[in-house]
Write a structure and sequence with these properties.
The chain is built from no helices and eleven strands. The chain is mainly beta and 121 residues long. A hairpin with a 6-residue loop joins strand 6 and strand 7 (74-77).
Amino acid sequence: MEIYTFTQETGKKITKFDSDFVMSRIIQTEQQARIGCMYLEENGIIGYHQAVVPQLLLIINGEGEVCGSNKEYVKVQAGDAVYWEKDEWHETKTETGLTAIVIESEQLSPATFMTSSYRTI
């Protein structure tokens, strides 16, 4: 399991075309990707299971805890991105609720665009 950040502070200021915003790039794939949004209510859980393909979980609201196959839980919050390799066992849970975008694809390389967090497991 690896944890990255896509916060505003790690993004790049865009001013082209009279724009004024910050872009935090996340991923680029050449293979098919599935993208979904997960809503975990208070005390919600995505149960312990094996990743069928590489997965990238982007926390966009709230906070919770994630673990990999070592079952050591790490706190995550909005702006964190959690990456699991294919076949890696993992779980996500929250006491207060969280919303996350999940990207699944045979080809994911989050280190290409995002900064690794100090909480790489």
